[in-house]
């Protein structure tokens, strides 16, 4: 099966940064409302018909043929209606510059294609643009992204130009600008370029690859000749077309050995090209991605709905990388007897394995919306689900399989709390399940600080002082430096950490009361956390929660989104149950 030429083109542009020049014709500006040369011809014919006292013909070309005995041409009409370059410039101005009303409606303003090209220029993927267009839409799009091109349109501008290889962007307007009295319009004017312009063209067509879009090849003999005479070219040519090439264009494409790429529109094509180039660049970043790059990429992909598929692909790719690590020898369920060294080594490894996924989820749950919920659920459920364990099992190692998921879950939940995205928080706490052997169980049952460091493993993390909540402390110490900046500082992170862990414990208790968790856990066990032994404000979170519920009632944010059945008394009762349990265990 042949590779999709769009992918081939994207790979070439990404791999050879700045090596591909664009050749843009009137088709690129078409969706802006700027007419093509043929549409200008038809409008000029209509003007002639009106001046002759006739109605606008249904078929302007046929009317012209009947009236004058020859086929109409853009160059002939302009030559007859506007005898001087100044007259032609004034006549064309109305076709290319928007009125105030048109500007308000987005007519004759940069298209999606212009803007996508401008972003590729800003990223360094494109540095040279050839255009036959008289409009200034490309310049306007470049200005929007902070790029000032070196614009070439005349022999004098060629003489003073910055060398192509030293310019961030060179825009070569082969036919001039519509405000320039030297604009090339008639066939005679288009028959040849100046020696200076030919020299620049020869350099571009020899040293650069070429991507052609919106150019018919029919009206520009000097440009056709320039391409045909450059028989030595180092890089490929891609010709983007909506329909079959004309005979003249086909001759040029064959001489250049062009790869023809069928497209629906210039806008769609350049948006697609930009996204593919960016995606290829991201996928080739050294793996594993740094957490900073993973977070920045996630934040960018959250910015627009059109990136949703790319975001999902990137997230699931990272999830599968974590899964692969969990299947590796370093997370074997058999393993040696737990001791301080190997428990700490496995915990550090789990943190490293989960660092990118944690970064993606904390940015996602801080900035994302409800349309992204299914992505966070898919990631958490996949990384925390395991089949039935067989063979020799060390229970400490079995539980520590959940540690990467715990890093990701805590990152997501604390970020949602910091951003006050309580719908996202409710979804994380109650909308996710994981597979434990042959059963589906609530995520909060397996993915918490207590469960991921079960029994002896937890005690070995901080010997010899035997901390009361070593698993929670470990998560707090590792996540603090990573999340403090996002959530407002170290102190704020600790407050949010305690709030999140208490909500996890409360949701676990609610599910137990609703018989969704094994009844054996109902009274004797619930996930604990640092909140259980911090007795002084502002870290005495159970007391703080009860105070907030007393003051806010059903408006308390967790209740308002439906947690604990939206019932203030039920929420306070659950907090009381938690306090009784941990007092019983001497917290």
Short account of what is shown:
This protein has helices spanning 5-15, 37-51, 60-68, 74-81, 85-96, 100-104, 112-122, 137-144, 155-159, 187-190, 195-207, 221-229, 247-255, 266-283, 291-301, 308-327, 340-367, 373-384, 395-400, 403-418, 422-430, 443-446, 449-452, 456-459, 470-487, 490-513, 541-552, 557-560, 568-584, and strands spanning 20-24, 128-131, 150-152, 170-173, 209-213, 237-241, 259-262, 433-436, 439-442. It is of the alpha/beta class. α16 runs parallel beside α18 (373-384).
List the helices and strands and how they pair.
Elements: H1 5-15, E1 20-24, H2 37-51, H3 60-68, H4 74-81, H5 85-96, H6 100-104, H7 112-122, E2 128-131, H8 137-144, E3 150-152, H9 155-159, E4 170-173, H10 187-190, H11 195-207, E5 209-213, H12 221-229, E6 237-241, H13 247-255, E7 259-262, H14 266-283, H15 291-301, H16 308-327, H17 340-367, H18 373-384, H19 395-400, H20 403-418, H21 422-430, E8 433-436, E9 439-442, H22 443-446, H23 449-452, H24 456-459, H25 470-487, H26 490-513, H27 541-552, H28 557-560, H29 568-584
Parallel strand pairs: 1-2, 1-5, 2-4, 3-4, 5-6, 6-7
Antiparallel strand pairs: 8-9
Helix pairs in contact: 1-14, 2-3, 7-8, 7-14, 15-17, 16-17, 16-18, 17-20, 18-20, 20-21, 20-25, 20-26, 25-26, 26-29, 27-29
């Amino acid at each position: 099966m042949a590779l999709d030429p769009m992918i081939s083109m994207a790979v070439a542009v990404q791999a050879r940064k700045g090596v591909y020049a664009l050749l843009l014709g009137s088709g690129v500006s078409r969706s802006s409302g700027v007419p093509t040369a043929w549409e200008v011809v038809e409008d000029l014919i209509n003007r002639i018909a009106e001046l002759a006292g006739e109605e606008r013909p249904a078929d302007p070309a046929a009317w012209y043929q009947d009236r004058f005995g020859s086929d109409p041409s853009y160059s002939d009409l302009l030559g007859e209606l506007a005898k001087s370059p100044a007259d032609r410039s004034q006549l064309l101005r109305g076709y290319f510059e928007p009125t105030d009303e048109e500007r308000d409606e987005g007519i004759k303003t940069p298209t999606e294609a212009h803007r996508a090209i401008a972003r590729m220029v800003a990223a360094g993927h494109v540095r040279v643009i050839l255009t036959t267009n008289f409009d200034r839409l490309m310049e306007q799009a470049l200005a929007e992204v902070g790029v000032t091109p070196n614009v070439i349109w005349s022999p004098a501008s060629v003489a003073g130009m910055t060398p192509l290889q030293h310019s961030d962007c060179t825009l070569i307007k082969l036919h001039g600008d519509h405000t320039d009295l030297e604009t090339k319009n008639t066939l005679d004017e288009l028959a040849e370029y100046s020696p200076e312009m030919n020299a620049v063209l020869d350099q571009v067509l020899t040293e650069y690859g070429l991507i052609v879009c919106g150019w018919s090849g029919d009206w520009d003999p000097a440009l056709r000749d320039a391409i045909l005479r450059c028989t030595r070219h180092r890089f490929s040519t891609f010709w983007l077309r909506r329909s079959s090439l004309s005979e003249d264009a086909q001759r040029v494409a064959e001489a250049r050995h062009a790869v023809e790429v069928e497209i629906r529109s210039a806008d769609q094509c350049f948006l697609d090209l930009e996204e593919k180039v960016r995606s290829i660049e991201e996928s080739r970043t050294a793996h594993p991605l740094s957490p900073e790059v993973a977070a920045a990429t996630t934040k960018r992909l959250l910015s627009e709905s059109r990136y949703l598929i790319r975001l999902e692909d990137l997230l699931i790719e990272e999830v599968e990388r974590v899964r692969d690590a969990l299947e590796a020898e370093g997370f074997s369920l058999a393993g040696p007897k737990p001791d301080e060294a190997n428990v700490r080594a496995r915990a550090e490894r789990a943190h490293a394995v989960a660092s990118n996924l944690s970064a993606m989820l904390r940015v996602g749950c801080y900035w994302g919306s409800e349309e992204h919920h299914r992505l966070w659920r898919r990631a958490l459920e996949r990384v925390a689900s395991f089949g039935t364990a067989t063979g020799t099992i060390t229970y400490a190692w079995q539980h520590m399989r959940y540690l990467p998921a715990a890093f990701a879950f805590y990152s997501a939940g604390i970020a949602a709390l910091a951003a006050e995205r309580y719908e996202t928080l409710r979804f994380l706490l109650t909308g996710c399940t994981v597979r434990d052997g042959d059963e589906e169980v609530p995520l909060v049952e397996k993915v918490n600080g207590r469960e991921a460091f079960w029994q002896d493993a937890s005690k070995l993390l901080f010997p010899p002082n035997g901390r009361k909540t070593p698993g929670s402390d470990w998560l707090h110490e590792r996540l603090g430096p990573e999340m403090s900046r996002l959530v407002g500082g170290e102190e704020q992170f600790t407050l949010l950490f305690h709030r999140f862990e208490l909500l996890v414990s409360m949701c676990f208790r609610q599910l137990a009361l609703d018989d969704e968790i094994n009844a054996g856990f109902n009274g004797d066990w619930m996930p604990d956390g640092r909140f259980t032994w911090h007795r002084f404000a502002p870290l005495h979170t159970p007391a703080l929660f009860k105070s907030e519920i007393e003051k806010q009632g059903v408006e308390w944010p967790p209740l308002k989104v439906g947690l604990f059945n939206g019932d203030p008394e039920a929420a306070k009762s659950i907090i009381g149950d938690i306090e009784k349990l941990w007092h019983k265990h001497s917290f």
